[in-house]
TrEMBL record:
This is 2-methylcitrate dehydratase PrpD. InterPro entries: MmgE/PrpD_sf (IPR036148), MmgE/PrpD_sf_1 (IPR042183), MmgE/PrpD_sf_2 (IPR042188), MmgE_PrpD (IPR005656), MmgE_PrpD_C (IPR045337), MmgE_PrpD_N (IPR045336). Belongs to the PrpD family. Residues 294-466 form the MmgE/PrpD C-terminal domain. The lineage of its organism: Eukaryota, Fungi, Dikarya, Ascomycota, Pezizomycotina. One of its GO terms (molecular function) is lyase activity.
Length: 487
């Protein structure tokens, strides 16, 4: 009998496939429109960081960490006289980007990518430069490629857990998906091998967590993506040093990432491991990253749009809100209801206010907009606004086949008038904000926190990122002093 035929090689498992793709991807593999979009998304993330650096909760976190940690080499956004070790800088800068609910989110797998990616990558870049005594340079192209890797990985991890459904089970979705995101992007920046990236995933995923109860009144909601940024950064550094992580961490049956975080979710199948690698390098998840026009949780945005439309169509009755509105009803889909349909009770922190559909609807009615200024402490104590919150009910609707972003607002007046408005998708979702609209948002949110010349320099650097040979030029601009936008 002759020699047996060689066995066909088995298809690599998802963790291995994903790690290999991350290691081998180049900027030339990425379509130009995706690279251009990514630069605008990065600009938005940096703007949110500048806006958030000196908010009251940010300053409390900063002072605690400055007291705790020694001086390091990593820039802290908006604090020119402070430097921190890489891990702590990533944590703090992430809290700044997440500081006012104005940062990006993914429309299918909720995650605030920039608050994880930018802090981890910039801290890693400064570590590389400082470790090599400034003989190494990290270029804008290096950062751009690594950021796009993260934009691609995060939603895939989220979709494998049924995306927004994670919110209905009480997990803070982005904080759960996030450690793997930071590990993948930093792993790419450091030039890790596929095996090292798999180790980084295995170290990152075991640190994943985030309780959605943080939304009701705590300030730690601002920092939970920062835990993910820090932990993923640590995972990549450990893997670079040869530290062995959990192998096949996503698909492991016993104690694996997808199995554990989908436990008890009631879905069939429980998780979707194929989403990790589905259409890699063909379908670009970066296109699903959305930029927020309002300073509140994404699930409140359709509510705001409903109220805005009512104000446009019926300006006279909607201006008589003080005494004439008897009841407001907000109809929400499952994820939005569990996330923002809870009963807001006074007193409320800005975090809780920005996460409540009832409070945000009242804010739009009373103030005519939902931006940073509407969440100053004195604004949170507005008696007229709270009267509207008290007469608002959020109800769960499960319309078969309805768009996931559909919401309806009904306003009933004491004279019997009833006004009703429905939207199927929020502004900035379908269609997404254009690149030009993102630039306009950047200019709007930075105009009161940094000077125009500095803002223009950052804008030019980011939008021409491939021409930047040394990313420390951008870091120098980000580290300059910023102002508190709600002082």
């Amino acid at each position: 009998m002759g020699p047996s035929s060689p066995k066909q090689s088995a298809k690599p498992e998802p963790t291995t496939q994903l790690s290999s793709w991350i290691s081998s991807a180049t900027l030339n593999d990425i379509p130009e429109e995706i690279r251009v979009r990514a630069k605008h998304l990065i600009l938005d993330g940096l703007g949110c960081g500048l806006l958030g650096a000196h908010l009251p909760s940010s300053e409390k976190a900063a002072r605690a960490i400055f007291d705790l940690e020694p001086v390091g080499d990593a820039t802290v956004i908006g604090w020119p006289d402070k430097k921190l070790p890489s891990l702590s800088a990533a944590l703090l800068n992430s809290a700044f980007i997440q500081g006012f609910e104005l940062d990006d989110w993914h429309s299918e797998a909720p995650i605030h990518s920039n608050s994880i990616l930018l802090p981890a990558l910039f801290a890693a870049a400064e570590h590389v430069v400082s470790k090599d005594n400034k003989s190494s340079l990290v270029s804008g192209s290096d950062i751009l490629l690594a950021t796009i890797i993260g934009y691609e990985v995060g939603p895939r991890v989220g979709l494998a857990l049924h995306g927004a459904h994670v919110l209905t089970t009480g997990w803070h979705s982005g904080a759960v998906f996030g450690p793997a995101v930071a590990a993948s992007a930093v792993g790419k920046l450091l030039g890790l091998t596929p095996e090292q990236i798999e180790d980084a995933f295995g170290v990152a995923c075991t640190q994943a967590c985030g309780l959605m109860s943080a939304q009701f009144g705590s300030e730690v909601k601002r920092m939970q993506h920062g835990f993910a940024a820090r932990n993923g950064l640590l995972a990549a550094f450990l893997a670079q040093g040869g530290y062995i992580g959990i192998k096949r961490v996503f698909e492991q049956e016993y104690g694996g990432f997808l199995k554990q975080f989908s436990s008890g979710n009631g879905m069939e199948p429980q998780y979707l491991v194929d989403e990790l690698t589905k259409d890699l390098g063909v379908k670009w998840q970066t296109q699903g990253v959305r930029v927020k026009p309002y300073a509140s949780m994404a699930g409140t945005h359709p509510t705001i749009d409903c109220v805005r439309k009512l104000q446009e169509l019926y300006p006279e009755p909607m201006q008589n809100w003080t005494s004439d509105i008897a009841k407001i009803t907000i109809e929400l889909g499952e994820a939005a209801f569990h996330h923002g349909g809870w009963k807001a009770i006074r007193p409320l922190t800005s975090t809780g206010a920005q996460m409540s559909n009832a409070y945000v609807a009242a804010t739009q009615i009373v103030y005519g907009e939902v931006l940073a200024a509407q969440f100053r402490h004195d604004m949170l104590e507005n008696d007229n606004l709270w009267r509207l919150v008290d007469v608002t009910d959020c109800v769960l609707t499960k319309e078969i086949g309805a768009p996931r972003g559909r919401q309806t607002v009904t306003v009933e007046f004491k004279d019997g008038t009833v006004l009703r408005q429905r939207v199927d998708s929020a502004r900035g979702v379908e269609p997404p904000l254009s690149n030009q609209e993102i630039i306009e948002k950047w200019r709007q949110i930075t105009k009161d926190v940094i000077d125009i010349e500095r803002a223009e320099k950052i804008e030019r650097l980011v939008l021409e990122l491939e021409k930047c040979d040394d990313i420390m030029l951008l870091q120098g601009l980000m580290g300059g002093l910023t102002k508190n936008p709600i002082a």
